[in-house]
Amino acid sequence: MRQLPGNRLGYGAFMRALLVALFEWVERGIAPPDSRFPSRAAGTLVSVAEARATFPRLPQVNFPNVLNELRLRDHSVEPPIESTVYPVFVQSTDADGNALGGIRYPLLAYLLPRMSAGRCARPAMARVTCSPSRVR
Questions:
Q1: CB 88, CB 70: distance < 8 Å
Q2: pLDDT in tens, 87-96
Q3: What DSSP designation does 59 have?
Q4: Which of 14, 28, 39, 89 has the fewest CB neighbours in a 10 Å radius?
């Protein structure tokens, strides 16, 4: 059983913007936007243990129990022999459990910060972002 429903936020707008940036780079020589990937240096890519320790306590949401483990493999023999484990890093999260680093979805970057004390800050936003139980 899943903890939460699937992510309903589509990534089509991001892909379209990147496609436009690609055409501008190729056809007009306009540099593409800077990379926005999570990194260890920025603190947005952390060990699994650190992510588990800092993951916020949210009702009905648990940190994943299983994450992929990668190992070096020696393919010079048949069957390949597994050896050393690669370190696995995951994105750090904010106080709401949303990933840090990368491109922030506009609904997370703009609308959620404007919600406070368990209710929507503006009634117009309530129709879009808040469940009926959260609107007052």
A1: yes
A2: 889 999 888 8
A3: T
A4: 28
